[in-house]
Amino acid sequence: MYRDRKISLVIPARNEQRLIRPTLENVPELIDKVFVIDDGSTDNTAGVVREIHDKDPRVELIQHGTNQGVGQAIITGYRRSAKEKFDIAVVVGGDNQMDLSEVRGFLDPIIEGEVDYTKGNRFVHGMGAFEYMPKRRLVPNMLISAVTKIASGYYKVVDVVDGYTAISRRAIEAINWDTAWKGYGYPMEFLIQLNMRSFKIKDVPRTAVYLEGERQSQIKGLRYAMKVTPMLVRGFFWRIFHKYALRNFHPLFFFYVFGLILLPLGLIDGLYLIYKQIIGRGVSGPQAVLDALMLITGVQFLLFAMLFDMQESH
Description:
Elements: E1 7-13, H1 20-25, E2 33-39, H2 45-55, E3 59-64, H3 70-83, E4 88-91, H4 104-111, E5 117-121, H5 129-132, H6 135-152, E6 165-168, H7 169-174, H8 186-196, E7 201-205, H9 222-246, H10 252-278, H11 285-312
Helix pairs in contact: 6-9, 8-9, 10-11
């Protein structure tokens, strides 16, 4: 127990027989329960967890018969945590790359009522991420972060793919996890789920840990981006419609609608005018002015929509 709150730890694990042991051996005393979700491992992950359970009864193994995705593993842990009335559920990976000695920084903002969800940020100056993160991952991380900010509405969240998190029971019970993304990319989609219900979140600086010789992030550049971007685009439209049109009304809904109509129309019309000019048919002044108005107005509508969304999601 920590500050009179019951704390659970959710650890999704698939084929982590070597690293799950040091992960569990470093669980601090303030954690009341540890749920290890074995997501269809084909190695001895479950056996190692059972061995640890014999020494530490806080550790409980929950097995998925088949691989259901890391997102579903976390959701399983969330639901079990809420069912057993734990006040906060912390999530770390089973690869021993998240320092549990820093967990108080994730718990305090939730206990103090500041937010309902805290998320690790490895990019704070002095925390080491820029120095140790492989350079091939920085650009994909930045691009996915930019798309996620727009999709989720949490523009001040920096390290959107980090899986070191903590969430209140109130937030767990409020979200329909059946509609949540189950595979890789879940941290970004979970943000969309949280924003749609107006939960506040906070970045928590944490140390970046990269074990030499071990596999790192699941981000694989362009392939990863192409896989998660459609999910983020769908999530964006789902969030905007449900939060600002269906559940409540906000003018930014129309700002987004007009911006997403006028800007593409302006781009298409502009390309057509360029084509006309190239083939010698010429472009009149009114045509050029109309196209410029569509482009400028479309951009302005989108920028104002993003500004209002940022203010609503602070």
